[in-house]
């Protein structure tokens, strides 16, 4: 009986010993993993910390040397990777030579489908929660050009509705842009191809450009913009559709990431009615030049003297 | 050097010395500052989404308060002119206090613009050379330039005068007078530039009028002195600083004339907008009557007009103006009336309808209101401290004692 007990106690103690070892082992392993993880975290947060420090001191895009641009882009890519867990490319293609981009829109063809609006959001990585849209399609009463009578939120079963016509409005890439003059820190400027762009990392978010724009073309990130990672367009341009942060302005930039490579802007590609004509105003053979020379065209608020490079025409 | 050190020591000591009421007042203000700061932290974390602003109405109470306070800052000059140019001894007594108010108002202006920024961490981008200061192209760059300059002038001139007095001397006219001349021009410029900041926008027909500059000056020179007069009443009651009854009358006359001109300019504006309505009348229509059942600003503008009309009636009838209590009432009405006129009556309707004709209303959130209250409390703390120290030095309570 006593022996039995002894045996038992022996067994118990052996078992508990094994258990203890086991626990120790697991703890040890856990600790080891923990240390490695912690080291990774430290390394990662160290990188993150130095990245955020560097982004604080990030220069104005136009003041950076080519090397600095490369370093900055690598950092911006790491940032995008952290936020979206996705590799993105950030292009810096300069304006094409002898190019001045312009747009013409056939309002007799536009049926108000808003395909351009959706394509633009997909292409240009606007925050889905911030709900920024670079194009606003106005439903207008036939017989009037009064914008104040337009409907911005039309939502009937089918379009076009009887007695209405549709007027898409986006950045007009003015030759004499009031927004550029307004900016107190030169965070927005007109490129040589006539496109008004923003350095999202230089903008201080004062929104004075928004006040200055007669076309309501500039939009502000009131909160941190989020795009579902699977929807994020990874092909970006520094002055174009790269991911933005909260507190900065953004706007239509004629899809520089596409158009500087000879592609059409996303809105034109998406338009099912062929109402949109984009092209080089300096190329006499271009379709847009044909329209300007042969159609009756008009521009919105031409009287304000901002020289928009966006024309409307009818068949 | 020693004198300077001793001056600052005494200045700070005097600024923070006071009775129960003083500490109660300061505690109250500090609590409001902390509340405002807490609200701002929230805004900083979540972004300006916590405000009532939108892509449609992209400036709100912050810029409204900024615009109003630029006027208050500029108004100090109205009291400087008679004091230094016409050697008006009477007003000279209080001109240092007015400069103190200008300092406080300038700092509030800078704070209001800062809290309105989407990226306050990038404010250094505005620094010349280090950043990219878009001067002279951007009117906002001009505003930053004239405001900091005015703050500098409003600090240095009174500092010189107080410092000399502290040492027991008399300030030299040919030392401070050129500074005063510059600051007079400068004060007019800060409000003109702020008006141009708005009127230069072809996108906003409601602001795009040449009358905006003069209207800004007129409203500033009514609300500014009125606000100052109220603080003088406070100072007379709670300190031994002698403020003669005649000073109140002198300041009241300045405010009266300015308010009369202001109301006339408002009338001229309304007439031009409404006699023959165009598309550009939309903002005015929205402000005064509402559009399509959207009437958020209508009660504000009509109460502002009522307040200003009552104030101008009290002030323009001499027996009423001479009544101390009625004068205070008129001043309160004027300050509140002009404050509404600048914010709800000018900044916000400028955005409604949008350039694409959308009527989208704005109302501030609790966070915006709390942050604004916090900034006002900061300004009142600064004004209180500056006024207390200046009064002590002016009264000769503290003087530089040379060690034997």
Distance between the termini of chain B: 17 Å
Kindly report the spatial arrangement of strands forming the biggest sheet of chain A. Answer: 10-2-12-11
Distance between the termini of chain A: 109 Å
Task: Report on the biggest sheet of chain B.
Answer: none
- The CATH architecture designation of the largest domain in chain A is 2-Layer Sandwich
CATH class of chain B: Mainly Alpha
**What's the alpha carbon Rg of chain B, rounded to whole Å?**
22 Å
Structural class of chain B: mainly alpha
CATH superfamily heading of chain B: Formate dehydrogenase/DMSO reductase domain
Extended strand count of chain A: 12
Portion of residues in beta strands of chain A equals: 5-15%
What global shape of chain A is seen?
elongated
Tell me the layout of helices and strands.
The complex is a heterodimer of chains A (315) and B (404).
Chain A: H1 2-56, H2 66-84, E1 89-91, E2 101-106, H3 115-124, E3 136-141, E4 164-169, H4 178-182, E5 188-190, E6 196-198, H5 208-212, E7 218-220, E8 235-237, E9 249-251, H6 256-259, H7 266-270, E10 276-280, H8 287-294, E11 297-298, E12 310-313
Parallel strand pairs in A: 1-8, 2-12
Antiparallel strand pairs in A: 2-10, 3-4, 5-6, 7-9, 11-12
Chain B: H1 2-16, H2 20-46, H3 61-85, H4 89-116, H5 139-166, H6 173-199, H7 212-238, H8 245-275, H9 282-288, H10 298-316, H11 318-322, H12 324-347, H13 366-394
Helix pairs in contact in B: 1-13, 2-13, 3-4, 3-6, 3-7, 3-12, 4-5, 4-13, 5-6, 6-7, 7-8, 7-12, 8-10, 10-12
What are the defining features of this structure?
heterodimer, A: 315 residues, alpha+beta, Alpha-Beta Plaits, four-stranded mixed beta sheet, two-stranded parallel ribbon, 8 helices, elongated, B: 404 residues, mainly alpha, Formate dehydrogenase/DMSO reductase fold, 72% helix, globular
